[in-house]
Amino acid sequence: MPGLRGRVLVLGPLPPPVHGAAVVTKGMLDWLRENGGSVSVVDASVSSHGIGSIASRFRVATYLLARLWFHLVCCVRLVRRPEALYIGGAGGSGLYFQLIPVLVARLLRVPVVFHHHSSAYLAEHSRPMAWLCRLTAASSTHIALSASMAEQLRQRYLRRSKRPRILPLSNAIFVADAGPAHIRDGSSPVRVGHISNLSFEKGLQEVVDTATELRATGHDFELHIAGAAQDERTQAALDALLEPLRSDPRITVHGPLYGGALAAFYDTLDLLLFPSSYRHEAAPLVVLEAASRAVPAVAYPIGSLSEILFADELLAAPGAFAEHVTHLVGRWKEVGAELSRATLEGYQRSRAAATEQREQLWVGYLGRGS
Predict the structure, then answer these.
(1) CATH of the domain at 67
(2) Is the separation of the CB atoms in 108 and 79 below 8 Å?
(3) Using one digit for the tens of pLDDT, what is the confidence trace for 4-45?
């Protein structure tokens, strides 16, 4: 197949640090290059977990200046008028910085492909997101992570206009292929796991509560926890929370896992626990990574999670996560294989559809050589 023939300017975070938006931005960048696109990149990564995590005024100023610099560099490169500007979207104050290149792109008539990664501005009105939606030209595209996210975006910010278009595109296409997956057979012990940037907003308290309830009810289980805390203070709090569990041989606490070790982690699990209440949570890659290995996940119905769990039985009511998982583990012999199969098939459908949609999106902007 002939390669893409146009130019794309990419603005967004790239690993390190490793987080969902950075992985997706790199995945889109790699695909464009592999398919012949001419790509210029402005890496907007900063070595921080956000301005709220910075203690000193000097470091705050440095952080803000660094972010401003990246976006001004992007504006300068827009003068070359690429066929499209791709933006790995921010979710909070970063939107104010992203307004700058969006405005310049509008003035230069460069279409913007804005890839949304946050559900926070869908739950509550965001002034910078409203401005950004008004600035994106009719030839631009907003990439949402699910059909429901696309509809929420349309209703809250783009209801008065049929353009720019909104494209639901599953994050499943950004999951690395780790080979064939096997359907779980519902056998014991039921191996449950949790992996994330470990924090309370990502649900570690609920994971510990689930382990406590599983122990109390006498179910045959194992629990594996993987990931790293975002800072030393959080690590100390997590260590104190996990201390009562460390003596139980059924419970294993791993560090951060990547590459083959990460794939092996998923392959040891029967069920992923993802009780996140993070305000920006949208369509987390860890849930889709697990799904690619036929591992179902239990989660709260926030963001786009209800569309990437692929079975209603995997949705936990707010405040009832430990009870929901314990009930599911108790019935695992009857339901485990079917949930595993439904998860893998749902993931495969989403990936196939998204693969075609991504192709159509970029051929529309760049075309293919003869």
Answers:
(1) 3.40.50.2000
(2) yes
(3) 999 999 999 999 888 899 999 999 999 999 999 999 999 998
Residue 368 falls inside a structural domain = no
Pairing of strands 165-168, 221-226: unpaired
- Same domain for 73 and 122, yes or no, is yes
Q: Say if residue 16 is preceded by a cis peptide, omega within 30 of 0.
A: yes
Instruction: State yes or no: pLDDT of 370 exceeds 80.
Output: no
* H or E element that contains 272: strand 271-274
**Which residue from 187, 351, 178, 196 is spatially nearest to 273, judged by alpha carbons?**
196
Q: Is 306 exposed, middle or buried (0-12, 13-18, 19+ CB in 10 A)?
A: middle
Domain boundary among 115, 139, 169: 169
Q: Is residue 141 part of a domain?
A: yes
User: How many structural domains comprise the chain?
Assistant: 2
Residue with structure tokens 């990936």? 351
Show the domain range for 39: 7-169
How long a stretch of residues is the chain? Answer: 370
Q: Are residues 205 and 133 in the same domain?
A: no
Does a structural domain hold residue 358?
A: no
Q: Where do runs of H (alpha helix) occur along 35-170?
A: 57-78, 94-108, 120-123, 127-135, 147-157
> Tell me: the pLDDT tens digits for 36-76?
999 999 999 875 455 555 556 777 788 889 999 999 999 99
Same domain, 215 and 141: no
- The two three-digit tokens of residue 55, written as one number: 């203690």
Do 291 and 145 have their domain in common?
Answer: no
31 occurs within a structural domain = yes
Q: How many CB atoms lie within 10 A of CB 308?
A: 26
Residue 241: the pLDDT is 82
Residue 180, CA distances (Å) to 63, 267, 268, 296 in order: 43, 11, 14, 16
Q: Is the pTM of this model over 0.85?
A: yes
* Cβ-based burial of 205 (10 A; exposed 0-12, middle 13-18, buried ≥19): middle
Half-sphere exposure of 196 (CA within 13 A, CB side): 23
Residue 189: CB atoms within 10 A of its CB come to 14
Distance CA 323, CA 328 (A): 9
